[in-house]
Design goal:
With 403 residues, the chain is α/β, with parallel strands linked by helices. It contains 13 helices and 16 strands. Helix 6 crosses helix 7 and helix 7 runs parallel beside helix 8.
Length: 403
């Protein structure tokens, strides 16, 4: 869709638009080291009726230097809006597709051809997340469909010569664990092992990561008297020592990840990497959702981003920096469930931060018209890139605040 400026204000608004871009580019470098690394990304959910257009979101994320995005579908509007943008996408293949693809692998080929192939030449799609939290459903038919569907997707990618460019994985809830404390005793629920053993074998075979949605918030909410708030918010605390390994843990997220590594090891694998596909903290909740405040959300996500920037590994995997996708970009007002579900966003739909974690982005204010000349957002992004390249050699960069 085109951005159209009304003719009477075209010159003024265009000048203002690019001056704001110049100003932000001069100020935003302080966060680029965290965002541009391979350690952090953002979940871009869209269960809302008040979100900005994908074209505007593309400008926002570019201004934030966020270059890794996880979608829950393969929305063509989003993928088109981010063409030629240098953003790496994980796209989602919903649970509703799994049974059909398991029964008929040609449906996976059709999905790839319709949802991925039209965009991959211009939009960097690096992974397909087949299903989300399948084991949490306790639906045996759905659970048994997961691995065949993943194999069908991988075969479809192979047929198109894309299997090395696009990885195949799935995202899981920590509910699949029977034991998580101490971390070295991590184990899977017995009823899931018959499905997880071949699933992990497949991950090992195709060298793809095992994704986990990990939320220390839930553990704290359920046991606020037993779990120190500092332990879940990455603040200074005594932590805990695993009696089996003598490893010290000063935050719950790392303990959860190592518990999953231990569970994977019980099924014979030390060659499958765990990555965090979702983690976050709500800024608002119901009365019983203890700890859901803007202050705690700011501490959780702010401290997490600093750990990622330091390329920290867990005590059990010190040589493997944690890889995280923060949940989520926006508050989503149509999500069902408790109040917290609608309040995980770093930003309100108007682009204003919900709380301060050092992220101040630019969401363009767009005027639409059917008659005026058009400037597409992708052109604005390209101009941003040209401006940034120019500024890197421009001695006047420090004077941009005069705008």
């Amino acid at each position: 869709m085109a951005i159209l400026f009304t003719s009477s204000f075209m010159a003024t608004r265009s000048l203002f638009f690019f001056k704001v871009l110049l100003l932000f580019l001069a100020l935003s470098d302080s966060f680029s080291a965290t965002s541009n690394g391979q350690g952090v990304g953002i979940n871009y959910g869209q269960i809302a009726n008040n979100l900005p257009s994908p074209a505007r979101v593309a400008v926002l994320l570019r201004s934030l230097n966020i270059t890794r995005v996880k979608l829950y579908d393969a929305d063509p509007n989003v993928l088109s809006s981010f063409s030629n943008s240098q953003v790496d996408f994980m796209i989602g293949l919903g649970n509703e597709f799994l049974q059909n693809m398991s029964a008929d692998p040609t449906k996976a080929q059709s999905w790839i051809q319709q949802r991925l192939q039209p965009h991959i030449a211009k939009t960097r799609i690096t992974s397909i997340v087949v299903g989300n939290e399948i084991f949490k459903t306790n639906d045996r038919v759905l659970i048994s469909s997961l691995l065949p569907a993943m194999k069908a997707v991988y075969s479809a990618l192979t047929n198109l010569g894309l299997e090395k460019q696009v990885t195949v994985t799935s995202a899981h809830s920590l509910d699949m664990l029977q034991t998580s404390y101490p971390p070295s005793s991590g184990s899977f629920r017995q009823e899931f092992i018959q499905f997880l053993q071949p699933l992990l074998d497949f991950h090992s075979q195709i060298k793809s990561p095992f994704l986990i949605n990990a939320y220390p918030f839930f553990a704290y909410m359920d046991s606020p008297k037993e779990i120190p708030l500092e332990y879940v918010l990455f603040q200074p605390n005594q932590g805990m020592v695993d009696p089996n390994t003598n490893l010290h843990y000063d935050n719950m997220l790392f303990a959860q990840v190592d518990a999953l590594y231990a569970a994977i090891k019980t099924l014979g694998h030390t060659d499958v990497e765990v990555r965090i596909s979702e983690t976050g903290w709500p800024s608002k909740g119901d009365e019983n959702e203890i700890g859901a405040t803007p202050e705690n959300a700011a501490l959780y996500n702010g401290n997490l981003l600093r750990l990622v920037q330091q390329r920290k590994g867990t005590p059990g995997k010190k040589s493997v920096p944690i890889d995280v996708y923060v949940f989520a970009l926006f508050n989503e007002n149509l999500k069902p469930g408790p109040t917290s579900e609608r309040n995980y966003g770093l930003f309100y739909p108007d682009g204003k931060p919900v709380y301060n974690v050092g992220l101040q982005g630019y969401l363009p204010d767009i005027i639409y018209s059917s008659s005026a000349s058009s400037i597409k957002v992708k052109h604005a992004i390209k101009i941003q890139e040209l401006i940034r390249a120019s500024l890197s050699q421009n001695p006047l960069k420090g004077l941009l605040v005069n705008f």
